Amino acid sequence: QKLDQLMGKYQAACQLVRQNAIQLVDAADQEADLKAARAIVQTVATTVQQTVHAKPAGVVTYSLRAVSEDPHTFEIASEMKRGRTEAKLVFVRRGMVLDDPVHEVGGGVLEVAAFALRVACLVIEKPLKRRLLVLDEPFGRLRGEANRQRMRDLVLSLARDFGVQFVLNLD
């Protein structure tokens, strides 16, 4: 009788091991499916972000080229960090990515980029009738009369192209 009890426990344990092995295989399959789904979602998110980022990056690049004698390209790159895509603002000059644009470009270039990003955000967020941008000395670090004239031309061009009204306090 003791042997029968032990055999019963052994068979129950074997059955439990088989069930656990099946559950483990199912869990591994689910994990693989979830990883594949995550990869698809991340790919779609990156593609959408690149598409969405193209317009503001284009406005900034257009603005930088309109004002600067040494034109820069502006990009918004998507990077994977901590399982998410994050945007990284990138300045490119003569084909070289600038690692630290704050220290590698002049303040005027940064002001033009910041101004253009404000315009792009306004265009994305507001309907045509509510596009008003009020700024106090947005180009204080821009040097040279030629650059200032190009900036005035740029402001007029952006106002015309995007329907933005500007109120600027300039020195």
Structural overview:
The chain has 171 residues and is an alpha+beta fold. The protein has 4 helices and 5 strands, in the order H-E-E-E-H-H-E-H-E. A 3-stranded antiparallel sheet has the order 1-2-3. A hairpin with a 2-residue loop joins strand 2 and strand 3 (96-98). Helix 1 crosses helix 3. It is elongated and about 105 Å long. The mean pLDDT is 88.
Keywords:
171 residues, alpha+beta, three-stranded antiparallel β-sheet, 19% strand
Short structural summary:
The chain has 171 residues and is an alpha+beta fold.
The arrangement of helices and strands along the chain is HEEEHHEHE
Shape field: elongated
Q: Structural class, please?
A: alpha+beta
Report the end-to-end length measured between terminal Cα atoms.
103 Å
The total count of helices amounts to: 4
Question: What is the residue-mean pLDDT, rounded to a whole number?
Answer: 88
Strands of the biggest beta sheet: in what spatial order? 1-2-3
Number of strands: 5
| Amount of beta strand | 15-25%
- Based on CA atoms alone, the radius of gyration comes out at 29 Å
Helix-residue proportion: 55-70%
Strands, helices and their partners?
Layout: H1 2-67, E1 72-81, E2 84-93, E3 96-98, H2 101-104, H3 107-125, E4 132-136, H4 145-162, E5 165-169
Parallel strand pairs: 4-5
Antiparallel strand pairs: 1-2, 2-3
Helix pairs in contact: 1-3
